[in-house]
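Please produce the structure of this protein holding adenosine-5'-diphosphate.
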Amino acid sequence: MKDEATRTTDRPVILSLAGLSKSFGETQAVKPISLDIPEGEFLTIVGPSGSGKSTMVRLLAGLEEPSGGALYLRGKDITAIPANQRPTAMVFQSLALFDHRSVGQNIEFAMKMKGVAPAKRRARALDLLKLVRLPETYYSRAVTQCSGGERQRVALARAFASDPEILFFDEPLSAIDYRLRKTLEVELKELHQRTGRTFVYITHSLEEAMVMSDRIAIMKDGDIIQIGTPSEIYAQPVNRFVARFMGEVNIVAADKSATFPALSRNAKGQYAVLRPEALHPEEGTLRARLTVAQRLMLGSRTQLHLTGDAGESFVSEIAGSGDAFLPGTEHEFGFSPENVVWVDA
Ligand code: ADP
Ligand code: MG
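Below is the modeled complex.
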């Protein structure tokens, strides 16, 4: 997490959206959005499927014509400038590599189109292989002979070939298995730091966003409903939608909880958002007896799915293997009002 001194929002704005919107017939895929993206920022746009993320990033990359508003690059109106004339590049989920061509040919494709001389293209391609940490020997390897992670790196090298100021990513890791995805997330973050370029990254995984981003924008129904640093969003989600998006949380209606009736006396909002690790068998002033419905091992931690007398469901996360918490057994759990995040909607 970043401290105030290193916040990228203090830097000059590279990309500015002024009421940018997009409709497809009756569908308003992106509502008018105004947003400044500072130079060098890793901004991630997160939202569920259909929330307008792809349309948004296509608008930013110039692959989609906006229905309204304007887009500025360092203060210059680029709304009408075609994608291939902008200093930006895009990486798609499909990667869109040419399978029948070599790694080198894939990376050099755009340079070749622009008439860059072969020796110069090759030198640049070898530099780019180094940038994405692929050995030089991969230059002549067929793309079909590369693993999923290697193909990802080839797509990145190709995106960097034009030395873009801004890189757009539309869920590039969503089709990749968990372990490799975690590795690539770290590599991408490092690549961002090494190159200092502006990254606008789309994902439906808030977990992925939390790992990599300087700022996260949460999209819902074509609108950005919250934007902030990962720690800001984690500490103060604006509503239940954002809180739920962060994974397993307890959301308790303050005045309606039969399990924790005392909650209403501490209420600072309509709903109490309580993280699983804040609902604990040993601690907390607000306590209740809960029955273990399910126990899930998470490695060094254990997740307990719990039920209150009135049928309310809760989730708790405890350290260790939770041997005492057999399904069907009843235990006292509690939390402290200061660990509650209050939301109104
Ligand atoms: P996401 O990437 O978050 O899943 P999209 O931007 O792809 O969301 O889609 C947002 C909304 O716009 C959806 O309702 C989708 O059906 C609609 N949409 C996207 N592209 C088109 C298109 N080319 N024509 C018509 N509707 C579209
Ligand atoms: Mg999409």
